[in-house]
């Protein structure tokens, strides 16, 4: 069976709407972001450590998932672009490295770094030329939910002056 040379590249971004089932799965998959951010920022102080651990771990998981989606779309091309594949892996690695080193830095820096990685991931998917963006609104919603939740936690972390 011949491989497609990037059929997703042919359709202009923003024209293909994600099915309702994908939106439903995304809502459930994104639930840990606002729940963890709310518990960390506004819940009982005794749950703050666990909540921020969930938030940071889920950030690493979702960034790895998004990197895997990018890898899969790029790998579907007749000639995958090595640079784009490397960038995909870079985002996943950055996410897990941040999780592993979080205890060495102030939590505010770690949360800010995750915000930056999410935004760079989104920009690489949407602003770079000739990217195979499937369901761009869905990936924007995923990134927005993550970034808003991380920003809420960042605000609370700055106010509290806590370490990872």
For this entry, give a set of tags.
164 residues, mainly alpha, membrane, transmembrane
Summarize the structure.
The protein is an all-alpha fold.
How would you characterize this protein structure?
This is DUF3429 domain-containing protein. It holds the Pfam family DUF3429. The chain crosses the membrane at residues 20-43, 55-73, 85-101, 107-123. Keywords: Membrane, Transmembrane, Transmembrane helix. InterPro entries: DUF3429 (IPR021836). The chain is mainly alpha-helical. The protein has one domain. It is 73% helix and 0% strand. It is built from seven helices and no strands. The longest helix is centred in the middle third of the chain and has 28 residues, at 48-75. The protein is globular, with a radius of gyration of 17 Å. The N and C termini lie far apart (49 Å). Mean pLDDT is 84; it is low at 1-14.
């Amino acid at each position: 069976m011949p491989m497609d040379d990037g059929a997703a590249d042919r359709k202009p971004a923003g024209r293909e709407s994600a099915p309702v089932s994908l939106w439903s799965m995304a809502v459930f998959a994104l639930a840990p972001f606002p729940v963890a951010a709310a518990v960390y920022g506004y819940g009982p102080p005794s749950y703050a450590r666990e909540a921020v651990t969930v938030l940071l771990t889920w950030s690493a998981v979702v960034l790895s998932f998004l990197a895997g989606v990018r890898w899969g779309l790029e790998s579907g091309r007749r000639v995958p672009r090595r640079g784009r594949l490397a960038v995909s892996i870079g985002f996943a690695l950055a996410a897990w490295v941040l999780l592993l080193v979080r205890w060495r830095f102030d939590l505010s820096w770690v949360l800010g770094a995750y915000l930056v990685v999410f935004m760079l991931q989104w920009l690489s998917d949407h602003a770079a030329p000739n990217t195979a963006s499937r369901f761009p609104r869905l990936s924007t919603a995923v990134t927005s939910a993550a970034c808003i939740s991380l920003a809420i936690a960042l605000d609370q972390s700055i106010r509290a002056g806590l370490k990872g």
